[in-house]
Design a protein that fits this description.
The protein contains three helices and 37 strands. The chain is mostly beta strands and about 425 residues long. Strand 12 and strand 13 form a beta hairpin. The longest helix has 11 residues. The radius of gyration is 52 Å and the shape is rod-shaped. The chain starts with a strand and ends with a strand.
Length: about 425
């Protein structure tokens, strides 16, 4: 016979709905609701086939055998002849796992635990930190917060902190960078080298601490603080003899910050009569070269007028007056005197030294007590010129003196 258009052997097969099936033994059956096992026809269980030798169908559900008992395979499973409920539809290994809700968890060293409040790490059980797990080898819990151990050790997070595997006390509750900061009186302050400083009034430059200038920082390499104002300073080279001089801004003027030490055309040390040479003599105090190195040279007036290098000149009486007025007048002498060599404060970087002078008839006087600087302005008599004297008192005075005296020279920039 044909089943549809296909021939089949009716002795071993049968046709149902144009489909060919093997007979079960010699019997036909309904493949939609029945199935064949070992030449016997069985009704499906809830529409599913099953193994009649090891499974039972009860109320449309298939049950497996577990030891001497049967269980519902849709909701249960068997392990080592023990029946367990599935976990969210999943089977698991009851020897190493357990179920909470619909989630499977690994036992901790063979034991179940409260997964809501506990966790397992390295076969040991720990309380969660808040609701979080952590690494007990490198972390610890305080309250509900997790912290990293310091070199493997727990610490008091309220009063201590860890930096670079070392433990430090907090600074009034604040942490800081111990490499660049420190604590003083409960305040975190920056370090300059290894010294703490207050950044509201000081600053650090090249490893040294400086006072701010009117609240501002500056570059100590070429700037200085002059009574609350940042002023430039630096050096220049006298191309005539290669000597290097410091200079500093004072008010709107730029001054040499040390006395000139240039030897003019004649420097024999003998007295220069009647100023008959254009370059009159220059002198070292007591004719000792070491004095010139310390205090600069002493110049008679004619020599002083020509002594300054290119770009600089001997100041006039008016320029000295402007200078005096800026620094505070006659009583401001201490502000100009060297802070290291003449018991002053040197507020403006002028660095006045007590160079003394050469008298009219050739004697040297007052080294260590007085500084004198020529101006280029002669007085009305023609035989004298104005000069500025800084007395040990200390006091500044601008007055005339004989041109044959030997005084110091401070050049001012053109």
């Amino acid at each position: 016979p044909k089943c549809g258009n296909t021939l089949y052997d009716p002795a071993v097969k049968f046709c149902l709905g144009n489909s060919i099936y093997d007979k079960c033994g010699n019997a036909e059956f309904n493949p939609g609701t029945q199935f064949c096992v070992g030449n016997r026809v069985y009704d499906k269980c809830g529409g599913e086939e099953y193994d009649p030798d090891t499974q039972l169908c009860v109320g449309g559900r298939v049950y497996n055998g577990c030891g001497s008992l049967f269980y519902d395979v849709s909701t249960q499973f068997c392990a080592a002849d023990v029946i367990y409920d599935k976990c969210g539809g999943k089977t698991f290994n009851p020897g190493t796992e357990f179920c909470v809700g619909s989630n499977v968890y690994t036992k901790c060293n063979g034991a179940e635990f409260n997964v809501a409040t506990e966790f397992c790490f390295g076969n040991s059980l720990y309380d969660k930190c808040g609701s979080k797990t952590f690494n007990p080898g490198t972390e610890f819990c305080v309250g509900s917060s997790i912290y990293t151990k310091c070199n493997g050790a727990e610490f008091n997070v309220v009063t201590e902190f860890c930096s670079g595997n070392s433990l430090y006390d907090k600074c009034d509750g604040a942490i800081f960078n111990p490499t660049t900061e420190g604590c003083s009186g409960g305040t975190v302050l920056p370090k300059c080298g290894n010294t703490l400083y207050d950044p509201t009034i000081k600053f650090c430059a090249a490893g040294d601490i400086y006072d701010k200038c009117g609240g501002k920082t500056f570059n100590p390499a070429d700037e200085r603080c002059s009574v609350g104002e940042v002023k430039k300073y630096g050096t220049f080279t006298d191309t005539r003899d290669g000597q290097i001089y410091k200079w500093v801004e004072i008010g709107a003027q730029t001054w040499m910050a040390e006395n000139l030490n240039y030897a003019t055309a004649t420097a024999s040390g003998s007295y220069c009569y009647n100023n008959q040479e254009l370059y009159c003599n220059t002198y070292c105090y007591n004719n000792q070269e070491s004095s010139c190195n310390t205090y600069g040279r002493l110049y008679e007036w004619e020599a002083a007028k020509e002594a300054c290098p290119d770009g600089w000149h001997l100041p006039s009486e008016e320029e000295w007056t402007t200078f005096m007025n800026f620094v505070g007048g006659e009583s401001a002498g201490a502000k100009l005197m060297s802070a290291t060599d003449w018991n002053g404060t040197d507020d403006y970087g002028f660095n006045a030294l007590p160079s003394g002078y050469k008298a009219r008839l050739g004697s040297f006087n007052s080294n260590g007590n007085v500084a004198n600087w020529w101006s280029r302005s002669p007085d009305f008599s023609g035989i004298s010129a104005y000069y500025l004297v800084l007395l040990w008192t200390p006091r500044l005075v601008l007055s005339p003196e004989y041109k044959s005296f030997g005084f110091s020279v401070r050049c001012i920039k053109d």
